[in-house]
Amino acid sequence: MFGVRLPRYRTRSGMFDDLLAAHIRRLNNAWPELIRPIQFAVEDVPPSDPVPWELEPNVMSRLFPAAHGMPARIVLYRMPLQSRARNRDDLQWAIRDELVVRVAELYGRRPEEIDPDYQW
């Protein structure tokens, strides 16, 4: 029996979603005009078929530019990100890095412009 506020209550996927939501809120506070129109999603694993415009597919995340009335979408792949992280802090920084890189890619900016703390 665990209460909802106790650490063991949260699943790994729930913790991932919480970290992602916190980073999206942080970026939205800094860049509301850039972040608000983007849809964000989490999938467990990437599909096996890369999209045609990707020369080198990234298994951590994918950017789908806006097209045909659909907003731009950024999808993060939970299991590859979690498998490369040694602890919660690593996972937090990996999520942040993927988000910042994809937002910068979407708008044709450098990641450092989107998040000054970004270091690759």
UniProtKB/TrEMBL annotation:
Pfam families: Zincin_1 (PF06262)
InterPro entries registered for this protein in UniProt: Zincin_1, Zincin_1_sf
Protein name: Peptidase
Record organism: Bifidobacterium merycicum
